[in-house]
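To: structure desk
From: M.T.
Subject: fold request, one chain
Message: Could you run this one when you get a chance? Sequence is below, nothing fancy, just the single chain.
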Amino acid sequence: MKKLAQLTFILALFFSSCADKDSFVIKGTVTNDIFEGQYIFLQELDSAWDFRNPVNIDSTIISNGKFTFKGLAKSGSPVHFLYVSDHSDEDFINSPAMVILEPGEIEATLDSVLTVSGTPLNDAFRQINDKKVSIIREIFRLNKQVAADSTNTIAQEAMQKTIMMDWQGFIDNDMYEFIKSNIHNRMGAYLFSTWYDRYPSEKNDELMAGINSEYKSVMAIQAAELYLNIQRKTAVGATYTDLKGKTPDGKDIALSDYIGKNKLVLLDFWASWCKPCIEEMPNVMAAYREYHDKGFEVVGISLDESNDAWKKSVDKLGIPWPQMSDLKGWESYMVETYAVESIPFTILIDSDGKIIAKDLRGNDLTEKVSKALN
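Reply: Done. Structure tokens follow.
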């Protein structure tokens, strides 16, 4: 009997130590009084990894500037979120906040932004997320200046630079490298499922190859794989896919009407409502005027939904090249066919129907066309 009691005690100690080893505690500190008395939720991803539909698994009330969550950390760097039920601070731009439930003491601080740290993966993600939030805040700040004074060209140029250089650099370099270094774990795989549409096919192929096989059946990863298949079909070196639509006058038109009949065809995805597209149009026009007689053609593909707005813009800009659209905007099958994520977007196709370049603008467009024709 005594030996049985000793064995029971030893087992209890063993299981207790295992539980301690796998346990987590989130200790929250709230420095902004507007959140006092509000619920904060601990959420997890649903089975599809759809970040728009997180599942509440626990909740507590923020009291005296504090909140706490405790539990056992599951294996595989599970992605969770902290979410405040209600807030009125317009600067609160980081809700919900991602948290990795790994063993240890996790610190969460809520002011105008909810930040998480204290354990290895949470510390690593906080560093990359802080940089993202900083860039977003700067874009917001500049946008307010532009909204307050539409003639403020300095603010407009600064915002454009921030978006094109800082934000795009963050996506192409910082976030990509972070995902790549964590692609083997669940956090990296999840982040890939939310960022893949920002990357070219060669980067996505590299990331997809590193994802753990157990995550390949998740709906979000399967959706990424479908997207990658389209990217591969529209990568440089691939054969073009035909498109069919209507002209502004309602006549049938197909991309195949021009491929092979010209030495080079540029697909120009644009819209009448797209300011960067309109700003880029003179560059396309210059290339067209210089090289059209040498076998260069442009086919405009509009993401407009209003035929009148589309036609008026074509007439106002004096666009001489053929146009097509199905007037479905971003829901157009043409967008999906060529994996278009932003406009203006261009694809250059040679006389054999092979894609030889993508996303050409400004001098790069003129130089590529000149080189391909000579």
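Reply (cont.): The first strand starts at residue 23 and ends at 30. Let me know if you need anything else for the meeting.
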